[in-house]
Structures are given as C-alpha cells and as structure tokens.
Specification:
Layout (H helix, E strand, L loop, with lengths): L1 H30 L2 H7 L19 H26 L34 H35 L5 H25 L4 H27 L6
Helix pairs in contact: 1-3, 1-6, 3-4, 3-6, 4-5, 5-6
Length: about 220
C-alpha cells in the first residue's frame, strides 16, 4: 500500500538523520576538545581547526578513513531498510545464504503462498538488501583491518589514532558476531538492540578517526 511505503520512507529517513546527528556530535566533540583547542587555538572557524589536507587532496590514510565512514553510513542505511521492510530474516541462515555462498537470484526459494503475500520481485529485493548488508560488512572489516595496519606502521608511539583504530577493530569483530547471533536467535531483541548500537558507535568512531587524520592532533598522546 501507498501509506506503508510512505511509513517506511519516513522511518528510514529518521534513522539516517539520527546517524548524521551522531556523527556531527562526535566531530564537534573532537574539534572542541582541549587538546585541539590548545594546539590550534580558536582564531577562526576555518583555520582554527588546523585542517592540514584539503578534501580534494587527501593523503592515503585520510582517504581510507573517509572510505570507511562512507561504507559504514551505507551499512547503517542498508540496516534501516532491512529493519523497516522486514528483511532481517529473509535469508534465514548464516554464514551461508540459503545453504550457498551467494544467493542464486534466478532461482530463489520463493514460496508463492507466503503469509506476507510477497511477490517474487519483493522477495528478491529483500534478499538483495539483506545480502548487500552482509557483503558490505565484509568490506568494512577489511577496510578497518587496512586502516589498523597503516596506523600501526606509521605511528610507532601510542596515540589517539592508534587507540581509535584498535577500538574499531574490536568493535567490528563484535558487530559481525552480533549480526550472526541476530540470525541464529531469530532477531532476539537484546541482540538486535546491541547490533544497532554497536553499528552507530562504529560510525561515530570512524568519523573521529577520519577527523583525526585531518587535524593530526593526539598522534603521540
């Protein structure tokens, strides 16, 4: 129904805006922290932040961190679509998809007598969204691994960026475990809530890591 589509659209927009607000809050917390203000001062909003790399000329570390932010935002958007379209259990097994490594979209196990009265197209769309969420999670884990390795190689001394990437690595492993548990427990409420909260935390920390690569503060703290 048209009203249901509008409800889903507003719910997804609400979830997306919430993540944007959270990300901005994390960035503001960093830019107004005593260490940043002490090192760069508050001369003006443009120069006081000490941005050392224009966005169009990002160095490699900042580019990787920015890619992570984008992928995590897309992941949370995919999660919101899954949640509000009822696609959380459309693929009922994990780590396989209908018993295979990849779902065969030309021959999905569709039940035409399903109680939700879904068409094959609707079923295939939900499967695609769900599988995209899983695949993107793998990409995110790989990017975090690359970022963790680059930071460890570049910054020998323990600092804020090293701690952030360590937290990101630990949380992404936890997040993947929670995602698996959400399938195995049939979307248990505590597990699902923890999964959503951990995803939001990952996004916030990735924003912090990206900002940290730009301002270069706290690398040796």
């Amino acid at each position: 129904p048209h009203s249901e589509a509008i409800r889903i659209a507003f719910a997804i927009a609400h979830a997306t805006l919430a993540q944007i607000v959270l990300s901005l809050a994390f960035a503001i917390a960093l830019f107004t922290s005593p260490s940043v203000l002490k090192e760069h001062g508050t001369r003006d909003a443009g120069q006081g932040l000490g941005l050392v790399h224009p966005v169009w000329r990002l160095h490699r570390l900042s580019a990787v961190a920015l890619l992570l932010v984008v992928l995590l935002f897309c992941q949370l958007l995919l999660g919101a679509v899954m949640r509000h379209t009822g696609a959380g259990l459309i693929i009922p097994d994990f780590p396989t998809s209908f018993g295979k490594l990849f779902p065969t979209f030309g021959n999905l196990p569709f039940d035409p007598n399903n109680p939700e009265r879904m068409t094959y197209g609707e079923f295939a769309f939900k499967v695609a969204i769900h599988f995209a969420h899983r695949f993107n999670a793998l990409l995110i884990a790989l990017i975090i691994g690359v970022l963790f390795w680059q930071v460890r190689r570049r910054f020998v001394e323990r600092g804020l960026l090293r701690r952030l990437t360590a937290w990101l690595l630990g949380l992404v492993l936890l997040q993947i475990s929670l995602g698996a548990l959400s399938i195995w427990t049939q979307l248990s409420v505590p597990v699902t809530v923890a999964h959503v909260a951990t995803g939001a935390t990952l996004l916030g920390l990735s924003v912090l890591a990206f900002c940290q690569t730009l301002i270069g503060v706290g690398e040796n703290r």
